Amino acid sequence: QFPPGCILLRERVSFALRSNMPGQRAAEAIRREQIIKAAYHVASRKGLAQLTVREVASRARLSAGLVLFHFQSKDQLTVALLDWLLGTTTLLHISADIERIGDPLDRLLALLRQEMDRLAGEPHRIRLFFEYWVLWGRHPEMGPKMRSALARYREAFRPMVQEVLAAERERFAHVTVDGLAALSVSFIKGCAVQSMIDPEHFNIQHYLAAAEALIGQFMASSGPLPAIGRNRQGLFVKAKRSP
Fold first, then answer.
1. Most buried among 3, 29, 115, 228, using CB within 10 Å?
2. CA-to-CA separations, 201 to 13, 129, 230, in angstroms, rounded
């Protein structure tokens, strides 16, 4: 018997009694995943400010004590949710259909479309990502996690980008691997942001058409783009070329 209110203690003792049962670790991993998904449902719809252990427990149909057994505090649950969000949002998956495309540039464009479709279809996920970005100021440990995940996502584009530059040397004469990889990710994230701003009216086809027209203008320009630097006031200006 436990006195009223000792829910967490009861859950801990119960777990200790079951810890040697076959498959227990797998069951506990499934339970953690259940709690994380419930936390995502709450946070992505109500915001991180409304994320509470009670709300998550209710969504997961578990006791608050069991949630606290796996995640000892709301802060720990919030960080665990960020890890899950980054792992499911910034992981680049190249489908077999895309792998089979022979032309490197067509393959890259197909990958961009895949990622735009995927992220634009999940505005709640993108909104939650930016909430974490704002929260970073109060939780410094979140910054390295987010920067590292975004860097890995961009890095995943490099092999395909390198193939494009090798196959299209004339078209991309003044383009670097880092530059094209960064631009690719910028298009994807920009598309996701626009879908978050106006999910009812955002049209990916219009977005792609505008991007293609804009890039076409850049590619049609003769010679390399002018170098950009900063003046003493910190404003961007064209760098002067040596005579």
1. 115
2. 53, 21, 38
